[in-house]
Amino acid sequence: MAHRGAHFQRDYSKRQVNLRALIDMDGVLCDFEAYFLEKFKEKYPDEPFIAVEDRDGFYIRDQYEKLKPGLNDKCSSIWNAKAFFLNIPVIPGAVEAAKEMQEIEGVDVFICTSPVKAYKHCLKEKYQWVEKHMGKQWLDRILLVKDKTMVNGHLLIDDRPGISGLNPYPSWDHILFTQSHNSRMKNGQRRLENWTDGSWKDLIDEYKKRVA
Ligand SMILES: [Mg+2]
Asked: Does the N terminus or the C terminus of the chain have fewer Cβ atoms within 10 A?
């Protein structure tokens, strides 16, 4: 019987290592915040709201609840509604950048996204969104996962600060994608400010060299 530990002795030194880049959806590929506000104002025209540039902190519900008690449930009614996730607009340059990144030799790109608990529409619509904006072949590149620390990759581009989970030592470096809600945070964490100034290419170049 083969020793269980035998696979640890395999020689991986000649294997080509591709850079595995994980890209979050909401707040990185899709403009969740802007679309939320649009739909919130539409559904609750008499309620106070928070402009996107005044959003502070990751959780929309928390900031709205502080603004007026009872608004938190009205917030979740927006993203739990049918067609919300389907119709979120693309963040400028995001789809082009992801596609171009995937074209780079030695780079594999995956979409790494956490569905909301009320998954009825969200799960299906996230797939539909990817198919609609990125094409059918990208359906094989979706990782739907609540705990991103369990996912293997070299870098994770995500707008959520302080990503944690069961794995205390995730394989990826978290690159914080700048959104209003995290723009006031100054913890020195490496950021990607946008998809349009080309800086993502330097980031990928740098990480490609690291894994080569
Ligand atoms: Mg996000």
From this structure: N
